[in-house]
Specification:
By secondary structure, this protein is mainly beta. Helices cover 5% and strands 63% of the residues. It has 1 helix and 12 strands. The chain has an 8-stranded antiparallel beta sheet with strand order 1-2-3-4-5-6-7-8, with no helix packed on it. A 4-stranded mixed beta sheet has the order 9-10-11-12. The chain is globular and about 55 Å long.
């Protein structure tokens, strides 16, 4: 929904040591327009806290624009810095031609790589997939049965198989009990 904000904190825990927070992922959702079409804009940023950058330095920002009526991705972009590695990528979906154009640029190389791939309603990028799964009719999933999703990743598509394991109530420290759905990929 409009204004939704989700914050996840990454923690590292050893048997004999503190449960230490090392980074966070923040997701924000806003409703806007893109080329005159109503869309959901999902902004995400994952980063490692400064005190852990000596060990693992990451700053990953992405945005996905989903058609407000179909939740299909229209556009996607990311900017990644992982240590000395830096890359940018932009996807543009054309659902009339069932094509997605990706422009991937490893910033250590002079030229970006452009790839055009076929897409179907069952192919999407991982971030759009996250929001699409949240609105799925879960009654069609059978506990213990495998399902396959096709994910667009930069210059290729990959099949990801997952199994719905059922419902589970989880107690989240300082927040209470929540009904959850459990999957295995």
């Amino acid at each position: 929904r409009e204004g939704e904000k989700l914050t996840y904190v990454g923690r590292y825990h050893r048997n004999r040591g503190p449960n230490t927070a090392y980074g966070e992922v923040v997701l924000r959702t806003t409703k806007t327009t893109l080329a005159g079409t109503p869309v959901w804009n999902v902004y995400g940023n994952a980063k490692v806290f400064s005190s852990f950058k000596w060990f693992y330095d990451l700053d990953y920002t992405y945005q996905v624009w989903l058609d407000a009526s179909t939740l299909r991705p229209v556009k996607y972009s990311f900017r990644l810095r992982e240590g000395k590695y830096k890359a940018n990528c932009d996807y543009t979906y054309n659902w009339n031609t069932k094509k997605v154009t990706t422009v991937f640029h490893n910033l250590r190389k002079p030229e970006p790589v452009t790839t055009v791939m076929s897409v179907s309603d069952k192919k999407t990028d991982p971030r759009a997939l996250f929001y699409n799964l949240r609105s799925e009719d879960l009654s069609k999933y059978v506990q213990g049965k495998g399902n396959t999703l096709n994910i667009v990743l930069d210059d290729t598509t990959r099949a990801v198989t997952f199994t719905y394991l059922g419902k589970e109530q989880r107690n989240i420290k300082k927040l209470g009990k929540f009904d959850t759905l459990k999957f295995s990929c």
